[in-house]
């Protein structure tokens, strides 16, 4: 028995019995798929909301704290009269 | 805007229903072979099929010309490969039903055999899908075919496995 014959025999064994598709399959699939889609939408919205809140928080903090201004030195006295 | 969305949704539902009507029989047959259940009593195969079709439904708008059948089949195969490890691992878990044609094979052998011969996926594609080298897929496929055509009596014969690995 060479390779194509063996493959054909294996195929025949597998093709033998065909199961019947359950009638409520489509409704079930749409229900589950729709739920997956809704969950994804909610997760995406939540992520955007979080991103927005984080950027607003950062902006407010930056405007209040002015992190780009050099902090006044409190170890060296200011240089005067030289 | 809302009306356009509604008509798009209706079209999408029609397309998906046609796809399910066409593909469900074949995919369910493949899933039943994978789980080694009888065609009349296949709850696990139905569950696999429902999950993979639901996944296809959820990604229907992002297919971009890709074949939905291919997508569903990929999901079915990877889901089965992931689930096989703990579904067959423990004691008293689901055992292959003796009435199934592929009952003598391991889950991995069944998966590769179904992908290669029942679904006609190329060796390289099956290997890429499962994350195995193509030679390994070839060897497993040979061994599975041999086991299928000449069912072993008693425990798995060692020489057959050794021959398949070296070829």
UniProtKB/TrEMBL annotation, chain A:
Stated name of the protein: Amiloride-sensitive sodium channel family protein
Transmembrane intervals: 46-69
Keywords: Ion channel, Ion transport, Membrane, Transmembrane, Transmembrane helix, Transport
Biological process according to GO: monoatomic ion transmembrane transport
Domain of life: Bacteria
The UniProt record lists the keyword Ion transport: yes
